[in-house]
């Protein structure tokens, strides 16, 4: 018997009235594990109305009390860390180690939300003109919404609603319909932490529900993480409806390997950064750029990748799990085949990999291509699978030119023992997040997640200080209080000399 995934609307858990049903399947064997009824237009409207009503009181809650809610919430998340990770692993197919990392990175953002008081401070200047002072307040927008992807069902919702709500807003979350049970558990724990009923609402569904969010007049800001086509649609439709939008989209992340780098470190880091989480992360390294003599390490990289074995979520020896669904697997296999046909060297082919007893799962083994050029589809398209492409260049300048010509700019890294090379790279590269001897440079949440180019549509990024700016408005006051207005008399004022 499958689990019925609930909606959370107005503080009540409901099956929903929508006629369209979606089956949630186990990526390891594609068997059903849950089902959900897509929210109706009326239910989306009810969720927004609930968030709006709750927000009217919440915005008057002292910022210190909002911070205390987040303190209680992050404590509950930590207490339930392993429980959340187990649910997450079972519905995404991630290994338990990957699932725990997913949860923990979300907890870090909830911790940062507990620091909201200092981030909500405005500015002030005395005597901007004679007898006139100017100061500013940071105030909430109203109702905000989040549309989140399948690949990080704990981390990415926690990027959004804790910061938005800590800023004084109400929130409507539309998680991925492919793994909705983890976000629902996050919402339950948020209510247990003492959140006012109706402040956080969760609705499930497909495009119709998304469109209801994008066009609703009471939603002021929308956060999204997902693919490029959907990100562009979200950004265009949301802004056409006069909403503030941050849309995090696709990536093609390069790791530059200099000849002076430590070979063993490079190979170990590259293996995990490319096929970890089955390559289903927007910060995965999908292209390794070997500079000069470092290309001689490619055969040893192949040997290391060949040792990685995918497996079930509770298999402690598994390097990663299955892809999320059959369509994702089919797309990855099609791109692997295209790479072969376009002339890349397939040094390691995981197309036929299966796990015994789970042959119907969405498995793809580690795959390695060399001799990849920018004209090939496996270079131009985001594969989102356990596939690593390598290309070889002669100089660091060649590597920088190659990466800067790419339309994506989410993350990149360089491995080198040269401070000068690292300094040149970080200064000249046109990518938003740069790692130096760090393969996946996702910043901790007191900074912001800062993808560039076609990896991001909008102006203000996720979490950190930029998230506070995204979820708030600034009100500036210019005030004059003439001294002639001071009321004189006994017990009313202090006489001026």
UniProtKB/TrEMBL annotation:
<dbReference type="InterPro" id="IPR016162">
    <property type="entry name" value="Ald_DH_N"/>
</dbReference>
<dbReference type="InterPro" id="IPR010061">
    <property type="entry name" value="MeMal-semiAld_DH"/>
</dbReference>
<dbReference type="GO" id="GO:0006210">
    <property type="term" value="P:thymine catabolic process"/>
</dbReference>
<feature type="domain" description="Aldehyde dehydrogenase">
    <location>
        <begin position="15"/>
        <end position="477"/>
    </location>
</feature>
<protein>
    <recommendedName>
        <fullName>methylmalonate-semialdehyde dehydrogenase (CoA acylating)</fullName>
        <ecNumber>1.2.1.27</ecNumber>
    </recommendedName>
</protein>
<comment type="similarity">
    <text>Belongs to the aldehyde dehydrogenase family.</text>
</comment>
<keyword id="KW-0520">NAD</keyword>
<dbReference type="InterPro" id="IPR016160">
    <property type="entry name" value="Ald_DH_CS_CYS"/>
</dbReference>
<dbReference type="Pfam" id="PF00171">
    <property type="entry name" value="Aldedh"/>
</dbReference>
<keyword id="KW-0560">Oxidoreductase</keyword>
<dbReference type="InterPro" id="IPR016161">
    <property type="entry name" value="Ald_DH/histidinol_DH"/>
</dbReference>
<dbReference type="GO" id="GO:0006574">
    <property type="term" value="P:L-valine catabolic process"/>
</dbReference>
<dbReference type="GO" id="GO:0004491">
    <property type="term" value="F:methylmalonate-semialdehyde dehydrogenase (acylating, NAD) activity"/>
</dbReference>
<dbReference type="InterPro" id="IPR015590">
    <property type="entry name" value="Aldehyde_DH_dom"/>
</dbReference>
<dbReference type="InterPro" id="IPR016163">
    <property type="entry name" value="Ald_DH_C"/>
</dbReference>
């Amino acid at each position: 018997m499958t689990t019925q995934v609930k909606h959370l609307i107005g503080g009540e858990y409901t099956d929903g009235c929508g006629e369209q049903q979606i089956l949630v399947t186990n990526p390891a064997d594609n068997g059903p594990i849950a089902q959900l009824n897509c929210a109706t237009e009326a239910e989306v409207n009810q969720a927004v109305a609930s968030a709006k009503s709750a927000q009217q009181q919440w915005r008057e809650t002292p910022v210190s009390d909002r911070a205390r809610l987040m303190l209680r919430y992050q404590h509950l998340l930590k207490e339930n860390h392993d429980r959340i990770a187990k649910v997450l692993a079972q519905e995404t197919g991630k290994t338990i180690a990957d699932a725990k990392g997913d949860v923990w990175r979300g907890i870090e953002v909830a911790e940062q939300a507990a620091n909201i008081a200092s981030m909500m401070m405005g500015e002030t200047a005395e005597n901007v003109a004679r007898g006139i002072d100017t100061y500013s307040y940071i105030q909430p927008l109203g109702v905000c919404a989040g549309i989140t992807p399948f690949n990080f069902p704990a981390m990415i919702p926690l990027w959004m609603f804790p910061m938005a709500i800590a800023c004084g807003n109400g929130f409507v979350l539309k998680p991925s319909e492919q793994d909705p049970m983890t976000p629902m558990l996050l919402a339950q724990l948020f209510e247990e932490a003492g959140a006012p009923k109706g402040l956080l609402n969760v609705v499930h569904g497909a495009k119709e529900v998304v469109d209801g969010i994008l066009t609703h007049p009471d939603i002021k800001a929308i956060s999204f993480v997902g693919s490029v086509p959907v990100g562009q649609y979200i950004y265009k439709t949301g802004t056409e409806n006069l909403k503030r939008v941050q849309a995090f989209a696709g990536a093609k992340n390069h790791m530059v390997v200099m000849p002076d780098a430590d070979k063993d470190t490079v190979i170990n880091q590259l293996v995990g950064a490319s096929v970890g989480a089955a390559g289903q992360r927007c910060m995965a390294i999908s292209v390794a750029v070997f500079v000069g003599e470092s290309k001689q390490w490619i055969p040893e990289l192949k040997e290391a990748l060949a040792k990685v074995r995918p497996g079930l979520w509770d298999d402690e020896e598994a390097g990663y799990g299955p892809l999320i669904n059959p369509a994702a697997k089919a797309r990855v296999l099609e791109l692997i085949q295209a790479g072969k046909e376009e002339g890349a060297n397939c040094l390691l082919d995981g197309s036929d990999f299966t796990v015994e007893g789970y042959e119907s799962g969405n498995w793809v083994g580690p795959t390695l291509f060399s001799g990849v050029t920018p004209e090939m589809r496996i270079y131009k398209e985001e594969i989102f699978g356990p596939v690593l492409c390598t290309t070889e260049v002669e100089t660091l300048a060649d590597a920088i030119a190659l990466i800067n010509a790419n339309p994506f700019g989410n993350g990149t890294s360089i491995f080198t023992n040269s401070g000068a090379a690292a300094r040149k790279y970080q200064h000249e590269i046109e990518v938003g997040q740069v790692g130096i001897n760090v393969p996946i440079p996702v910043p901790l949440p007191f900074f912001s997640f800062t993808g560039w180019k076609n990896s991001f549509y909008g102006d203000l990024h996720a979490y950190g200080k930029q998230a506070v700016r995204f979820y708030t408005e600034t009100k500036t006051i210019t005030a004059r209080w003439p001294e002639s207005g001071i009321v004189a008399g006994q017990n009313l004022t202090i006489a001026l000399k």
